[in-house]
């Protein structure tokens, strides 16, 4: 079974709500091209496949809807190394800038928990298909082949990344590599 990403959005779970006005102010100041002020701003939550709460920011302006994705740490006490959205942001940013690995563009990282309660980052929204069965039932053989080839090419590009070099650079940038 396959569903479009946008078809898996739901209302934000009450335990995951945050200050949308504060987020809107932050995004307007830190995301290039973010349409603000907005009368048509909505936050919905993705209901699948993530350990960090993930939200869709929908910005209606001038008759069009622009979407962004926000990933944040969950609320409450967590292990320091768990739910490292800061690391996710840096990895996505590096992959997008330095490789051919297809990743969404990341716009900003906020480590100030006073904005929405936990650190978060905002990235590009990409509409796509979520397949719950990797056998891809109902998909034509030609399309299934194309999907598998694209997945293999993406994995090959990811495996060509020199992770040890990146790790050394990352640790040096955090002061942990000295």
Commentary on this structure:
The chain is an alpha+beta fold. It folds into two domains: 2-132, Phosphorylase Kinase, domain 1, CATH 3.30.200; 133-178. The chain has four helices and eight strands. It has a six-stranded antiparallel beta sheet, sandwiched between helices. Strands 1-8 form a two-stranded antiparallel ribbon. The chain is globular and about 45 Å long. The protein starts with a strand and ends with a helix. It comes from Ananas comosus (Pineapple). InterPro entries: ACAD10-like (IPR052898), ACAD10_11_N (IPR041726), Aminoglycoside_PTrfase (IPR002575), Kinase-like_dom_sf (IPR011009). This is Putative acyl-CoA dehydrogenase IBR3.
User: Which segments are poorly predicted (pLDDT under 50) over 5 or more consecutive residues?
Assistant: none
Radius of gyration equals 18 Å
Write the element-wise H/E pattern from the N-terminal end onward.
EEHEEEHEEEHH
The amount of beta strand, in percent, is 15-25%
Number of strands: 8
Q: Helix share of residues?
A: 25-40%
Tally of DSSP helical segments? 4
CATH-derived topology of the largest domain? Phosphorylase Kinase, domain 1
Q: Report the CATH architecture of the largest domain.
A: 2-Layer Sandwich
**What overall geometry do the principal axes of the alpha carbons give?**
globular
Give the number of domains.
2
The secondary-structure class comes to alpha+beta
Mean pLDDT across residues? 89
Q: What is the CATH class name of the largest domain? A: Alpha Beta
The spatial strand order of the largest sheet comes to: 2-3-4-5-7-6
CATH superfamily of the largest domain: Phosphorylase Kinase, domain 1
Largest sheet data: 6 strands, antiparallel
Distance between the termini: 49 Å
Domain Aminoglycoside phosphotransferase: 43-164
Organism: Ananas comosus (Pineapple)
Protein name: Putative acyl-CoA dehydrogenase IBR3
């Amino acid at each position: 079974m396959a569903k479009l990403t946008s078809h898996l959005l739901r209302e934000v779970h009450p335990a995951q709500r945050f200050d949308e006005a504060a987020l809107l102010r932050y995004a307007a100041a830190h995301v290039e091209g973010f349409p603000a002020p907005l009368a048509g701003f909505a936050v919905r939550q993705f209901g699948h496949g993530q350990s960090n709460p993930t939200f869709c920011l929908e910005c209606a302006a001038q008759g069009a809807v622009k979407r962004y994705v926000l990933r944040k740490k969950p609320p409450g006490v967590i292990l320091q190394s768990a739910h490292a959205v800061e690391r996710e942001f840096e990895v996505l940013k590096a992959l997008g800038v330095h490789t051919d690995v297809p990743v969404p563009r990341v716009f900003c990282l906020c480590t100030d928990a006073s904005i929405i309660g936990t650190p978060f980052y905002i990235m590009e929204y990409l509409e796509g298909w979520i397949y719950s069965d990797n056998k891809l039932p109902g998909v034509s053989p030609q399309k299934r082949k194309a999907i598998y080839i694209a997945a293999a090419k993406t994995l090959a590009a990811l495996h060509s990344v020199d992770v040890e070099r990146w790790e050394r650079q990352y640790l040096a940038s955090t002061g942990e590599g000295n």
